[in-house]
Amino acid sequence: MMTEPPRKEDEHAAIVRDGAKAAWPICLGYLPIGLAFGVIAGKAGLTPLEIGLMSLLVFAGSAQFIAVSMLTGGAGLIPIVMTTFVVNLRHLLMSSSLSVFLRGLGAWRLALYGYGITDESFAVNLTRFRDENWDWRRALVVNHLSNAAWVGSTVVGGYAGEFIPHGAFGIDYALIAMFLCLLVFQLRGALYWLIAAVAGGLAVFISIILPGNLYIVIASVLAATIGVLIRRTSKAPEGSP
Amino acid sequence: MRFEILVLSLFMGLVTYIPRWLPLALLSKRDLPLWFKTWLDFIPASILSALLLPALVTSGEPRHLDIFRPELLVALPTFAIALKTRSLGLTVVAGMFFFWLAGKFF
Asked: Is A9 on the interface with B (CB under 8 A)?
């Protein structure tokens, strides 16, 4: 269609468009959760400004829910911060996986990228990095659009959350459906199916015997380790399970 | 804006940011051994499955096994659509529709 190389503005527009195309399921999925968080935080006595600030600084849904419920229960700073740390340790694994695709990036860009790593942006960006022409600029657009959707929806929830009907349009299922599809993208051979099944089974088992969400890290580390051991012993050539 | 909430958010943000940033800063600069690359290659499938499955088959606080949930029932056709179409958008919309439909019966 185009005969001459794209101009700078066209390139920027293309980056934002590609990022937005990848990010919309995340933004849609954040909407009900962000609104719900805003409502609960509002009930716990946080003002919309405080809610927005917390969402901007922390940008981690489950930790924010837990923090607000601990605040309501009268917990102090240190227990809440320690719980937040443990709940968000799983990002270590996601950041490690992403690092393979962000080689050669400067320190400041890596620092900026780190801010936007969530379960959702990790899964979407990693899939794209692996499968198509994806780069850190497009990935950053995904991170920042997700961030804007999260901060915005939590603030709106703080103002007007009670007026929004609960469970409208099945929107509460958006993130689960997104994760299901992203999991399908990761199942690139029999060994990946096996490892996913092992991780899921372990996660269910550990989540029942252990409170909190450390089951995510424990199950993933064990399952990935089993995967390495199986691939080593089967001596399959790399990249073809 | 209360000072306590500002300080709380700052510290929560700091302890959340460190695990997000540290592996990027440490790992993206060096060559990783093959076994570690293989290990990282299994992490996405593992983590997605570990996030999903407990959300589908457990409920309550403390959690217990609960397989009679609309979340699990709806996951079956949604997963099938993901396998068949490999389209993220279609899967999300279909999943929302099935969940809405299931809400009429549960």
From this structure: no
Token representation of residue B101: 């439909």
Inter-chain touch A180–B101, beta carbons under 8 Å = no
Separate counts of helices (H) and strands (E) for chain B: 4, 2
Q: Does B104 touch chain A (CB under 8 A)?
A: no
Residues A18, A94: Cα–Cα separation, whole Å: 22
Contact A59, A147 (CB under 8 A): yes
pLDDT tens digits, one per residue of A115-149: 999 999 999 999 999 887 899 999 999 999 999 99
- Contact across the interface for A25 and B23, Cβ inside 8 Å: no
Positive or negative, the CA dihedral A22, A24, A27, A32 is negative
Between the alpha carbon of residue A14 and those of residues A11, A113, A124, A142, the distances in Å are 5, 20, 18, 13
- List pLDDT tens digits, range B21-74: 999 999 998 888 989 989 999 998 999 999 899 999 999 888 999 999 999 999
**From A126, A174, A200, residue closest to B92, measured CB to CB:** A174
B60 touches chain A (CB under 8 A): no
| pTM score of the predicted model | 0.82
Amino acid in the structure at residue A45: G
* Residues of B in Cβ contact (< 8 Å) with A227: 38-39, 41-42, 46
Q: What is the ipTM of this complex?
A: 0.90
Give Cα A123 distance to the centre of its chain. 7
The DSSP H or E segment spanning B64 is strand B64-65
Amino acid identity of residue A234, one-letter, is S
Give, to the nearest 10 degrees, the angle between helix A119-131 and helix A91-99.
Answer: 20
Determine the Cα–Cα distance for residues A12 and A30; give it in Å rounded to an integer.
Answer: 25
Integer-rounded Cα Rg, in Å, for chain A is: 20
